[in-house]
């Protein structure tokens, strides 16, 4: 007997997440997470033990929760559904209720982490019953935020508007509760008012094209996140021109317009015009920089920066596999060795510049141990050489 539609869709989504999860949460990443979480918790507890009660801790806790209490709604609809499912809309309550439950649990880990950190902050200056009230209010806001985001999909209200309003309401509700528990009523009125406003804006029937487009955008965002760690074939590649990068794309001189040098220029052009890759690398640099500044511990700073180079090299290696088999070699057919040499020259230069930037950050934080920074360019070169050879090895195995 064929499984119900909602069950098969959920199982397919879980299968995809499990498939990419084994690449994201590999042994290297799990070791890094364990070390980083341990040091973060140790430094946070040490810092809090020396702090006095302050409104700033309350603001940080409320702000942290206001950004984490944003559950995503996943209807798991497909493009072809717009042709076959609308006539059965009245009989799909079971399908959508299953999607509601799945969506709620799908994003629960982020609020749980945020709540744990917030409660640690609130231990300074707040009794246990206020912390319990804060946690209960967070749970209520999470459920209401999910209902609001779900209903907004089937309304003319944009998701950006809903997210902005939810962040503001979450922050005001939680901070006012911490100022005085009687202000809990303010948060209830605000979140209830937004819920009824979105309800009023809802279409009477489902806007199938809009909901399907929404699901497609959510799936694309998930693939973009996964692409930070591994190749994703399902992710559609987009490109755009960023004028502030144009100075890096000066046309090669006539003497370098040949098979020996042209592919290096083309890889650089693809990288700078890629819709996601430059911004992903910039975000990774920012995240890892914040981590080492927060921790400010020598050994962990070295480990974090070495791991940062590992993740960035993985990102760069996707550029070769994504582009070396597309239009370029068909327009300008050359031996694969020229394409490989062009990529390795480009990637070595990129990784060297990134390693130098990380080395400068390390030296600013630990000037006494400046000589350790020499490890980062060397590590980047070794990683890039290793992963490039791996790509070429797979290419040779598949070419016969």
Automatic annotation (TrEMBL):
List the transmembrane segments.
23-48, 54-70, 102-122, 128-148, 160-176, 182-198, 277-295, 301-322, 343-363, 369-387
Q: Which GO terms describe its cellular component?
A: membrane
UniProt KW RNA-binding keyword: no
What Pfam families does the record tag this protein with?
A: EcsB
Q: Does the keyword Chaperone apply?
A: no
Q: Which UniProt keywords apply?
A: Membrane, Transmembrane, Transmembrane helix
Protein name, as recorded:
ABC-2 type transport system permease protein
């Amino acid at each position: 007997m064929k499984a119900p539609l909602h069950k098969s869709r959920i199982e397919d989504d879980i299968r995809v997440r499990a498939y990419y999860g084994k690449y994201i949460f590999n042994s290297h990443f799990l070791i890094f997470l364990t070390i980083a979480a341990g040091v973060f918790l140790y430094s946070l507890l040490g810092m809090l033990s020396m702090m006095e009660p302050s409104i700033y801790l309350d603001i940080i806790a409320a702000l942290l929760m206001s950004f984490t209490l944003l559950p995503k709604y996943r209807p798991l609809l497909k493009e072809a559904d717009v042709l076959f499912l609308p006539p059965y809309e009245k009989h799909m309550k079971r399908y959508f209720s299953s999607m509601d439950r799945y969506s709620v649990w799908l994003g629960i880990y982020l609020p749980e982490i945020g709540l744990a950190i917030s409660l640690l902050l609130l231990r300074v200056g707040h009794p246990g019953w206020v912390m319990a009230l804060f946690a209960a209010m967070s749970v209520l806001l999470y459920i209401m935020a999910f209902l609001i985001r779900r209903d907004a999909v089937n309304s003319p209200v944009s998701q950006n508007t809903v997210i902005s309003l939810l962040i503001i309401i979450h922050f005001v509700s939680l901070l006012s509760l911490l100022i005085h528990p009687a202000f809990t009523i303010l948060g209830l009125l605000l979140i209830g008012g937004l819920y009824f406003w979105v309800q009023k804006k809802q279409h009477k029937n489902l806007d199938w094209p809009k909901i399907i487009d929404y699901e497609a955008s959510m799936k694309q965002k998930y693939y973009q996140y996964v692409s930070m760690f591994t190749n994703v074939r399902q992710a559609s590649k987009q490109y755009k021109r960023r004028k502030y990068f144009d100075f890096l794309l000066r046309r090669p001189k006539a003497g370098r317009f040949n098979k020996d040098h042209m592919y290096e220029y083309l890889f650089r052009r693809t990288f700078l015009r890629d819709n996601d890759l430059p911004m992903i690398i910039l975000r990774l640099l920012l995240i890892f920089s914040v981590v080492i500044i927060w921790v400010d511990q020598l050994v962990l700073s070295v480990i974090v920066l070495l791991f940062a180079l590992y993740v960035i090299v993985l990102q760069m290696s996707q550029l070769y596999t994504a582009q070396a088999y597309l239009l370029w070699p068909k327009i300008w057919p050359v031996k694969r060795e020229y394409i490989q040499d062009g990529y390795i020259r480009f990637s070595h230069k990129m990784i060297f510049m990134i390693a130098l930037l990380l080395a400068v950050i390390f030296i600013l934080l630990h000037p006494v141990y400046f000589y350790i920074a020499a490890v980062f360019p060397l590590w980047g070169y070794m990683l890039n050489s290793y992963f490039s050879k791996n790509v070429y090895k797979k290419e040779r195995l598949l070419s016969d």
